[in-house]
Amino acid sequence: MARVKLDNYVIADAPRLGLRGWLRWIWRQVTSMRVALILLLLLALASIPGSVLPQWPQDAAATRQFISDNAFWGPVLDATGFLDVFGSAWFTAIYVLLFASLIGCIAPRAAHHYRELRRPVAATPRSLARYEGAGPETVASSPDDAVAAARAALRPRAGRLGALTGYRVRVDRREDGSLALAAETGHVRELGNLVFHASLVLVLLAVAYGTLFTYRGQAIVVEGRSFTNAVVAYDTFSSGSLFDPADLDPFTLRLDSLDAEFSDTGRPLHFQANVTFTEPGEDAVRTDISVNHPLESGDAKIYLQGNGYAPVITVRDAAGEVAFSGPVVFLAQDAAYTSTGVIKVPDVSTGEQLGFKATLYPTFLEGPFAVASIHPDPANPVIEMLAYTGDLGLDSGVPQNVYRLDESQLSPVQDADGQPVTLRLALGETVELPDGLGSVTFEELPRYGAFDLRADPSLPYLLVAAMLTLAGLAVSLFASRRKVWVVARSEGAATVVSGAAYAPAHDAGVAAVLERAMAAAAGREATAPAGEREPS
Amino acid sequence: MNPTDLSVMALGGATVLYAIAMVAYAIRLARVADDKVAARAAVAVPAGGAADGLPVEAAAPASSPGAKAAKAAGIARSTTLVGAALHAVGLAARGIDAGHVPWSNMYEYTISGSFFAVLVFLIVQRRRDIAFLGAGVTGFATVALGLALTVLYKDVDTLPPALQSYWLVIHVSIATIVTGIFAVSFIATALQLMRDSRDRGTRWTGDRVRWLDAVPSAPALEALSFRLNAVGFVLWTFTVMAGAIWAEHAWGRYWGWDPKEVWSFVIWVLYAAYLHARTTQGWAGRRSAWLAIAGFAALIANFTVVNLFFQGLHTYAGS
Ligand code: HEM
Fold first, then answer.
1. CA gap B60, B55 in Å, rounded
2. Residue A193 Cα, ligand 1 centroid: separation in angstroms?
3. Neighbours of A130 (CB within 10 A)
């Protein structure tokens, strides 16, 4: 087989023979630097649609809307994975290939590095003319003393990670009688690079582990009420495929009060849930949860993710019986907490079922053309609602959205002119429904907190892997890779010393190191290096 | 004078001084290029005081072009320093006025990011002569500050609850510093590409861009921008990790592919690709330089387009 140089790092056997040759050739390609580079570029490119197009995992409602708004492109983009980029087959293919390439790259490099570490320092080149040089300088001491002094100067300074970052040195007495010192450093750079790349694999493994065991639930708790940690108690719950519901710690969380502070202009200042937290077999603990300060419980953390109002509404039916009474969660629609909610009253003692579509204005203001809330605090809370009668459709067996009224079998309650009636209630007020259908009371206005419970057992591992990545990267980029040579030769009674150094172009510091070694050999003060001059 | 006026006036003053510095740095570049032509002519025609091939300035009187370049450089350096001092006053006054670190919205990012660009330039300048980047850096700062004061200006406001965290200090300050570093290295990379084209005779060859002769060779510029990019990349890696830790604290997940997160990732991958390309045959030099440019473009997009047009959890950044 012919050897073909693919790039600086890989020399491949050009395939001439059969399947095995091809497979080996493909593997060499995949692990080449150029393919790694192209895969990185593809990864960057492939991520971009994930920020431009609506994505299912991030915003299902917007994605659904996008598909229905774009009759042709919506379904096409959906089917091709563009609306779930980071879960799509092609995105996965890119990073799986990249990591295959990464592992295929690290393993042989680690082995090579191990051999390099044990290999002795290479002898000083016969001629130093090819390199950035220093000298020749005539010095008073003997060649042995000059080289010994240079060697001492290259020894790592105390307090550093000397053994790793220092120079490895070798001294040869050459045929022409001269004494040659070769010093090199740079292994730690390669080591950092390997640690960095290997830690990227650890990061991926930690993420994968987390995906399998994580769980997340969301629950809304109204002031004064409690929540018990069990899968069924959550409004939404999702978990990794290896999560076991028995792992849930059956604590209860009571929301004693929710503090929401706003500035005069209505900007949010502070949200805090004051809670009583009870773990089985332990005393209740009063504590608080606020944004940026989750409550920790075992593996899990409980976050305050949102808040709003849950007005307590009582509905009496035509017979005057209480058909519904309790807090109804309203969702804030704007910064002034204008909130909407739906009240479903299936259990009326006589007549048809009742439904209401309601809007809450915490600080109600009526203008000439419209009504609005002007501040999120409940300074003047008013609820406006439309009432419906008919069949709520709850018996069909299809789970319903609690925030939407299925109007297909409902008809709006109308006044004598056939106009839908808008009911308006201030806090504490009761209004009668037309046609003797009953009455509605706006009793109280508690707040609610929207809590998010999350557990991800991979977090400590992920943190360690990330810190290793960062450390490896810093070493790999900032440690230097240098070679320094000093040759001392007797000329009559005097000694002539010359030196040279080699380092990558960006390493301006190597000149100072060479100067330090030369000055030591010559027994003089080191001069500050000239620094980088403008090119001429 | 109240802190608001002090901040705006100091920043306005800094803008003007940077503009002056930019002109002075540009004049200096032109003068240095003239000197080189003169020196070359003097060497080619051994006459006058340069018969032995020494640079003309060695023998020439004080009014020679070399002195003019030095004078322009002096003016440029002092106006930049005073500009940076005013800039710092403007930032500090803004911070005191707002009661929190001055990098919580686009106006504040812009005034602090441009400050860090100038600061990085001044720090590197102390260690080696990079006056050739001066026009680019002060020009960038002039445009950034000018846009901030005219288009992006926002009165001080309280922090929304999500930003009330010490991670705002850690994560966003490093992100802003990185922006400054990458801005300086971007200018070096742009000069590298232009100088390289001029040397190959493909583009930027005319007499009007003769100032390009006054900047270092393409490999020297590459080495400079690599060192800045290396520092920038490590700090960006830290920024992304710190952001993930903060997101875990505030939102309950360390990574959710929010648009801001997507673009932070894209930037990171682009600079990683740049670092690879530098050592890949056929990619080192021009192509890797273009990747660094793409990385910086993505960084700027992340601070502008993504804040303004994409919906995500980070939306408070735009206000
Ligand atoms: C997950 C994908 C990868 C990322 C994010 C990544 C990132 C990086 C970074 C940031 C550097 C710069 C450190 C330095 O210059 O010392 C680097 C260097 C390097 N990478 Fe990767 N890498 C990845 C995959 C790979 C793969 C698949 C290979 C093998 C083909 C590879 C081989 C190398 C080599 C040889 C260097 C050293 C370059 C040098 O400085 O001479 N990397 N990588």
1. 9
2. 7
3. 9
Pocket of ligand 1 (CB under 6 A): A 9, 31-33, 36, 40, 98, 101-102, 105, 193, 197, 200, 476-477; B 272, 275-276, 279
d(CA A289, CA A277): 11
Choosing among A102, A292, A456, which should be mutated to test the B contact, i.e. which has the most B CBs within 10 A?
A292
The arithmetic mean of pLDDT across residues B192-214, rounded, is: 90
Q: How far apart are CA B123 and CA B180, in angstroms?
A: 12
Contact B235, A477 (CB under 8 A): no
Name which of B112, B124, B127 is nearest B178 in CA terms.
B112
Do B257 and A506 count as a contact with CB atoms less than 8 A apart? no
Q: How far apart are CA A43 and CA A45, in angstroms?
A: 5
Q: How far is the CA of A91 from the centre of ligand 1 (A)?
A: 20
Distance separating alpha carbons of residues B175 and B171, to the nearest angstrom: 6
Instruction: Calculate the CA dihedral of residues B254, B256, B259, B261 and round it to 10 degrees.
Output: 30
Dump pLDDT digits (tens) for A453-495. 999 999 999 999 999 999 999 999 998 889 999 999 888 888 9
Give the ipTM of the model, two decimals please: 0.90
Structure token pair of residue A343: 């009240």
Q: Tokens 């395939």, residue?
A: A15
Measure in Å the smallest separation between the Cα of B212 and chain A Cα atoms.
12
> Coil, helix or strand for A411?
strand
Which residues lie below 8 Å from residue B146, measured CB to CB, with a gap of 6+? B15
A401-453 pLDDT tens trace: 888 888 888 889 888 888 888 999 999 999 998 888 899 999 999 999 999 99
Taking the model in full, what pTM does it have?
0.89
Closest CA to A257 of A444, A447, A443: A447
Distance A241 CA to ligand 1 centre (A): 33
List of chain A residues whose C-beta atoms are within 8 Å of the C-beta of residue B250: 291-292, 303
Residue A298 to chain B, least CA–CA distance (Å):
15
Q: What is the pLDDT of residue B282?
A: 87
Confidence of residue B318 (pLDDT cuts 50, 70, 90): very low
Q: Where are the domains of chain A?
A: 26-110, 120-186+480-522, 211-309+450-466, 312-446
